[in-house]
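Design request, tokens follow.
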């Protein structure tokens, strides 16, 4: 199979979807790998490293896309890439279709076989290709939240950890999944007063076991959300419904009731965000003030630390890339139920029910043998 790895062109996105080790392994299986020149530079991977592993460097992205059977990316295609996609081409990347009707329509109209990292799901319900980036985003959310609380960035001017004699910041985390748990680890380690909310009692029991009295766990219901968010200095939104648009758990009214200069980091913005005041931002212009609250809603948070993120991501994605390349997409999906759940669109057919629900469209299940 001819596999293409383009340079990411989303603003300040420095990750790359494959490492030289992945190129070498695919070459050993008889596949041809084409990498766009400069694709790995922000992740600390030189063009020569890709060449030594056996990749063919391609300076022209149009040529790369047109030459390959499968495109392996990090982020979803942006407008400039729409015209490069073609019927029957496999696209393996984060797609987040429930948040973009425009992208979904483009993929359907062009007959692309779109397999989304974020909806590949194991039997136990875990999301193996979302997990590493969720961990990065969770830890980054505290780092970025600290910056949002600084007075020079419009925040109330407090230190998350406090100092002897001065109260530390109060942090409320909505969602106890991987990103929420990683946010909690960092916030607790810095000495913040942390509350985490979730609808899953087993997750709350687990968090209680590992953090003991260092964290407050609450069932996520309207009353507890209001009380926790209103009193927090920093709120982390880490709500996730796999493949679906994120529900708005935080209303504009509730945001307005927070103390001015408080901060809100919406990790869920890729799927639409979990607050009524959330709107996508970029690393070039990451924050804005709404109702007196500093919002950080960057849609590709792990792109801020591309070296760490590329290594973590490719460790998880490569086995699936190899599986698709070796078997072809149909056989691979028929033999791997987890991978089959990653299929969102193929040849003009929408196969993800939650994406269909987001837009009121029809869908059809992909039949797994």
């Amino acid at each position: 199979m001819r596999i293409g790895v383009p340079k990411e062109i989303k603003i300040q996105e420095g990750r790359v979807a494959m490492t030289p080790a992945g190129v070498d392994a695919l070459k050993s299986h008889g596949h041809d790998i084409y990498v766009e020149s400069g694709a790995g530079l922000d992740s600390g991977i030189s063009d020569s490293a890709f060449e030594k592993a056996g990749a063919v460097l391609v300076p022209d992205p149009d040529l790369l896309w047109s030459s390959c059977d499968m495109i392996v990316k990090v982020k979803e295609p942006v407008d400039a890439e729409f015209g490069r996609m073609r019927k029957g081409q496999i696209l393996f990347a984060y797609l987040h279709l429930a948040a973009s009707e425009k992208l979904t329509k483009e993929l359907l109209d062009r007959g692309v076989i779109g397999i989304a990292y974020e909806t590949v799901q194991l039997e136990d319900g875990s999301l193996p290709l979302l997990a590493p980036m969720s961990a990065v985003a969770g830890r980054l959310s505290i780092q970025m939240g600290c910056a949002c609380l600084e007075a020079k960035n419009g925040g109330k001017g407090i230190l998350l950890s406090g100092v002897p004699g001065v109260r530390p910041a109060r942090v409320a985390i909505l969602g106890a999944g991987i990103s929420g748990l990683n946010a909690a680890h960092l916030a607790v380690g810095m000495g913040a007063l942390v509350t985490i909310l979730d609808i899953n009692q087993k997750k709350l029991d687990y968090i209680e076991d590992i953090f003991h009295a260092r964290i407050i766990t609450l069932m996520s219901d309207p009353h507890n959300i209001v009380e926790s968010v209103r009193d927090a200095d920093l709120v982390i939104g880490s709500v996730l419904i796999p493949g679906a648009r994120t529900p708005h758990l935080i209303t504009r009214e509730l945001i307005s009731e927070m103390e001015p200069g408080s901060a809100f980091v919406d990790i869920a913005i890729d799927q639409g965000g979990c607050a009524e005041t959330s709107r996508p931002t970029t690393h070039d212009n990451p924050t804005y003030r709404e109702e007196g609250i500093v919002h950080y809603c960057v849609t590709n948070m792990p792109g801020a630390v591309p070296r760490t993120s590329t290594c973590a991501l490719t460790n998880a994605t490569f086995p699936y890339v190899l599986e698709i390349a070796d078997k072809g997409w149909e056989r691979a999906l028929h033999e791997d139920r987890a991978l089959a759940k990653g299929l969102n669109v193929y040849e003009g057919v929408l196969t993800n029910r939650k994406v269909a629900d987001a837009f009121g469209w029809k869908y059809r299940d992909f039949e797994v043998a």
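Comment from the thread starter after seeing the answer: thanks! The domain at 2-120+306-359 is CATH 3.40.50.720 (Rossmann fold).
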